[in-house]
Specification:
374 residues, Creatine Kinase, Chain A, domain 2, 14 helices
Length: 374
């Protein structure tokens, strides 16, 4: 099966945000997506997800991070106006702290029904919400090289975005239980290491012919090449609570992809940790977040993950300056200093003893800085 990679001439961006729809009184999840989509008359940038309490917003193809911000401001502003009219609230985090997955309604689309029928319990538990960032790249061969190297930095991106400490009214003890829920699907989680674009095509052919998947869209790795869009798509991140956080993470991912791509173009070996180290580091990021002891070499040397993020930001700073996103990337330092969403959620629950207080805070966070729809 020949798969054509529709390469992008520059590091364009596309961002997808999966958002929680809430009852304004109980702050519980509510099946609002069908009404919102019907209200908006088929807007291609507003999409359903597996469960009806999720709404997904997609940007256009954007030239830079500033355009991503303008695009999302407009789309979020519109969504909030529609939700105010229809009687919903919106929040962004990797999980909802007290909603029950068994009570969620599956969206009436064939692909979701097939997924649930095939995977059963693991699919029914997918009451999770993430951020996906596409970065344009020139060729399939370059995409594979960058994709392989990006796995080294997935723990960093996960720890910074981690916002899912609670699930089904329990503190899971993790900073991101979302990734552990998602990993239960057979084609989700860490990707395989691939030699080149030809091996990617061979793998996809095998999976399709074996009826493991119907299309490449059903490979939900933490990072993956996207042939149709001509991008590398980073999917590891939990949902982030504010637009500023989303934009900052977008800036970091774009700078990271461009930095790795530059090294590829210059004929340098790209940074690449052993698979078993990446696997362990991802677990540590999901468990302890920025306080995790990151394995940095094959001798088992350890480094606090938050400190390693600081050094990575120094490396990416000149790349972000070139891309015009230096100020947005700098916000990552604020996340490191003040702590990601998982810390704030836990602190608020410890102070109040109420999961509803956590959700009230997330609702307020999401509206912050969004101008009224025009």
């Amino acid at each position: 099966m020949k798969i054509t990679f529709n390469g992008s001439p520059g590091p364009t961006l596309g961002v997808e945000v999966e958002l929680q729809l809430l009852d304004p009184e109980t702050r519980n999840l509510v099946s609002g997506a069908p009404r919102i989509i019907a209200h908006e008359g088929g807007d291609a940038h507003i999409k359903p997800e597996l469960i009806e309490s999720t709404i997904e917003l997609n940007t256009d193809v954007c030239r830079d991070v500033a355009e991503v911000r303008r695009d999302l401001e407009q789309r979020i502003g519109r969504l909030l106006a529609v939700c105010d009219e229809l009687g919903y609230e919106v929040a962004s985090a990797g999980t909802h702290p007290f909603a029950e997955w068994s009570e969620q309604r599956v969206t009436a689309k064939e692909r979701y029904n097939v997924l649930v029928e095939r995977c059963q319990w693991p699919a029914r538990r997918l009451m999770i919400f993430g951020l996906h960032v596409h970065v344009g790249i020139e060729s399939g061969e370059k995409a594979i090289a960058v994709f392989n190297s990006l796995t080294t930095y997935l723990p960093h991106l996960l720890a910074l975005s981690a916002s899912s400490p609670f699930f089904n009214s329990l503190d899971t003890g993790l900073t991101s239980c979302r990734v552990k829920v998602f990993e239960s699907l057979p084609t989700a989680g860490l990707p395989y290491r691939l030699l080149n674009w030809g091996e990617f095509q061979r793998l996809m052919t095998t999976l399709v012919n074996a009826k493991a998947i119907e299309s490449i869209r059903e490979v939900w790795w933490d990072v993956r090449p996207h042939p149709e869009f001509g991008t590398v798509e980073v999917r590891i991140c939990d949902g982030l609570p504010t637009l500023d956080d989303v934009v900052a993470m977008t800036a970091m991912i774009q700078a990271l992809v461009v930095w790795l791509g530059d090294q590829y173009d210059e004929g340098n070996y790209l940074p690449l940790q052993r698979y078993w180290i990446v696997r362990e580091n991802k677990w540590r990021a999901a468990r302890w977040g920025l306080d995790a002891d990151l394995i940095v070499d094959e001798d088992g040397k350890l480094e606090r993950l938050g400190d390693d993020v600081g050094r990575l930001l120094e490396t990416l700073d000149p790349v972000a300056a070139r891309l015009g996103s230096r100020d947005d990337l700098a916000r990552i330092r604020t996340i490191v200093r003040d702590g990601p969403s998982y810390l704030r959620q836990r602190r608020l629950y410890e102070e109040t003893g109420r999961f509803t207080a956590v959700m009230e805070s997330l609702v307020q966070d999401f509206r912050r800085g969004i101008p009224p729809a025009t």
